[in-house]
Amino acid sequence: MATNRTFTMIKPDAVEKGHIGGILSMITEAGFRIVSLKLTQLTVADAQEFYAVHAERPFYGELVSFMSRGPIVAAILEKDNAVEDFRKLIGATNPANAEEGTIRKKYATSMGENAVHGSDSDENAAIEGAFHFAGREQF
Ligand code: DAT
Ligand code: MG
């Protein structure tokens, strides 16, 4: 059964370009409620742990250095069918394949620097949310 929360990050590329406000607007206009929100930065060790599932992939080193190079916005979001609906809102991993109206179509520049993260399952949404936010930071 689908739960109603997902986890997102506005990645360093989008923060550097000043797109925090634009992306948060797209998220709230799509009907997501912000449960938790902060500007933070991943250490190299944080990024390695967060993306441990990709450790054997050729792009892992590049991904870890990109994700730790500057501030990110981390957020927990709430909506019916949150995980699936948020994946639709962000669009394909490769922005060249992202549909019109998606966050990655508007803000991502490449496969590696694709502006936003979205959890891929309810289980990962819970793990990723807890990685960034204590219970008292979840509203
Ligand atoms: P998503 O972020 O859409 O869930 P993913 O979980 O497959 O995609 O990969 C995590 C991130 O790793 C992705 O947002 C960007 C990067 N990445 C994935 N495949 C890549 C590739 N072939 N080359 C470079 N970066 C890649
Ligand atoms: Mg993923």
TrEMBL record:
SUPFAM superfamilies: Nucleoside diphosphate kinase, NDK. GO terms for biological process: CTP biosynthetic process; GTP biosynthetic process; UTP biosynthetic process. Its EC number is 2.7.4.6. It holds the Pfam family NDK. Its main location: cytoplasm. It is found in: Cytoplasm. The keyword Isomerase does not apply. Its cofactor is Mg(2+). GO terms for molecular function: ATP binding; metal ion binding; nucleoside diphosphate kinase activity. ATP binds at K11, F59, R87, T93, R104, N114. The active site is at H117 (pros-phosphohistidine intermediate). InterPro entries: NDK-like_dom, NDK-like_dom_sf, Nucleoside_diP_kinase. Belongs to the NDK family. PANTHER family: NUCLEOSIDE DIPHOSPHATE KINASE, NUCLEOSIDE DIPHOSPHATE KINASE DDB_G0292928-RELATED. Major role in the synthesis of nucleoside triphosphates other than ATP. The ATP gamma phosphate is transferred to the NDP beta phosphate via a ping-pong mechanism, using a phosphorylated active-site intermediate. This is Nucleoside diphosphate kinase. It comes from Flavobacterium akiainvivens. The lineage of its organism: Bacteria, Pseudomonadati, Bacteroidota, Flavobacteriia, Flavobacteriales.
